[in-house]
Amino acid sequence: MEDLSIPDDFDYRPIEAYSLLVDATNDVNGRAFVSVYTEFSEKASGELEPNYESKVASQALRNGKAELNFNAAEHVGSFLVEIWTYDGNDPVKKLVTASSEKLTW
What we know:
Largest sheet: 4 strands, antiparallel
Low-confidence stretches: none
Number of helices: 0
Strand order of the largest sheet: 5-2-7-8
Distance between the termini: 46 Å
Strand content: over 45%
Structural class: mainly beta
Number of strands: 9
Helix content: under 10%
């Protein structure tokens, strides 16, 4: 460890801040709730299934819209966004690439 040299201006930030703007007015009617996950798997049917323990943000939609601010590890390449409605239908899902700090549905 004596040979280890770290510059004073080195800034290691393993966590990134994200903002997700959701406009699902064309996808849902009535009351709805949005959740964001960092881990998910693909079923044999091709449907994406979230790992519910990896949820990083959730919020109720107002008139089909929401803005969520959250943090995630820098290695996360994409997020699974899931919108649940209170009418008993299956959730609407979308894969959002973590290509920038500002994400959109």
